[in-house]
Structure formats: structure tokens, C-alpha cells
């Protein structure tokens, strides 16, 4: 039997056709959403720093995320041995770092990156984890300068 190469899912941003090689497995789920394990990254717009980390089986479950290094240079993330094993890391360069983004309703000027719980994704193994940072010297949020329209 031939393996399914694409799946069509419903999302808050419409119907999406997802290649199965773009599915990311989160064995432990995400903080507060431990029962959801399969996600994909959706591009909102070309050249936008923001993506949606979309659940493959819950249409209304999607997180706005961004690469924090698009906004700041110094954001130390240390992968502990348990996360390294879960991610199946062979080369640390294969691990992408994402953070959730909060845009308060009607107040886009208060958009913030949540730096306290980075999401790590191994691009090769397509496995991910979310790990809380314990370094008290790292700020928990970074407010972005986004103009309201």
C-alpha cells in the first residue's frame, strides 16, 4: 500500500494541503496542549517573520510563532540531554528555535515574543519539543515595534 504523501486540513486561515514530509511530531505535545502531537508550519505571507504552528488534527489550534533571532541577536537556548534525545539531534545546526507571539486584540503595538518557552524543531528528524527556560537572566518577553493600522 502506498503511503499518503499529502493531507488536506482545515485551519483558521483556510483549507491547507500539507505534504506529509512537513509534519512535525511533538512526542510530549506543547505546554498546555499535551494531547496534541502532530503539527506543521504554515507561512502567513512571503517574507513575513511570522508562521503558524498548526495542529494537524485540531483546526482551531494554531500558534503564531517566529524565529527570535529575526528580532534579537542574543537569545541563549541550551538543549538538555533529554530534549536532545527526543529531538534525535545529530547536528545542533539542524535544530530551529521558535517562540510564540502574542498580539493583543486591537493593540498590535503591544505585540510580544514569549521568550520563556522556546519551541525546538529538528528539521531532519521532524521532531519537536517545547522547553521552559530556567535562566533568570533571560527576559521572558520582547515587545516588538509594530504599528497599528
UniProtKB/TrEMBL annotation:
Keywords: Bacterial flagellum biogenesis, Cell projection, Chaperone, Cilium, Cytoplasm, Flagellum, Translation regulation. Acts as an anti-CsrA protein, binds CsrA and prevents it from repressing translation of its target genes, one of which is flagellin. Binds to flagellin and participates in the assembly of the flagellum. Its main location: cytoplasm. Belongs to the FliW family. GO terms for biological process: bacterial-type flagellum assembly; regulation of translation. This is Flagellar assembly factor FliW. InterPro entries: Flagellar_assembly_factor_FliW (IPR003775), Flagellar_assmbl_FliW_dom_sf (IPR024046). The gene is fliW. Interacts with translational regulator CsrA and flagellin(s). It comes from Halodesulfovibrio marinisediminis DSM 17456. Gene3D superfamilies: BH3618-like. SUPFAM superfamilies: BH3618-like. GO terms for cellular component: cytoplasm. HAMAP family: FliW. It is found in: Cytoplasm.
Amino acid at each position: 500500500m502506498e503511503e499518503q504523501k499529502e493531507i488536506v486540513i482545515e485551519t483558521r486561515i483556510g483549507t491547507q494541503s500539507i505534504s506529509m514530509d512537513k509534519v512535525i511530531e511533538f512526542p510530549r505535545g506543547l505546554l498546555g496542549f499535551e494531547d496534541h502531537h502532530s503539527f506543521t508550519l504554515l507561512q502567513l505571507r512571503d517574507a513575513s517573520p511570522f508562521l503558524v504552528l498548526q495542529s494537524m488534527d485540531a483546526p482551531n489550534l494554531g500558534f503564531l510563532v517566529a524565529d527570535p533571532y529575526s528580532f534579537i541577536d542574543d537569545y541563549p537556548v541550551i538543549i538538555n540531554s533529554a530534549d536532545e534525545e527526543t529531538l534525535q539531534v545529530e547536528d545542533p545546526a539542524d535544530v530551529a528555535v521558535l517562540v510564540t507571539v502574542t498580539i493583543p486584540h486591537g493593540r498590535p503595538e503591544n505585540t510580544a515574543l514569549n521568550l520563556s518557552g522556546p519551541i525546538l524543531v529538528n528539521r531532519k528528524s521532524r521532531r519537536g519539543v517545547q522547553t521552559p527556560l530556567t535562566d533568570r537572566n533571560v527576559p521572558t518577553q520582547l515587545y516588538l515595534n509594530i504599528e497599528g493600522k
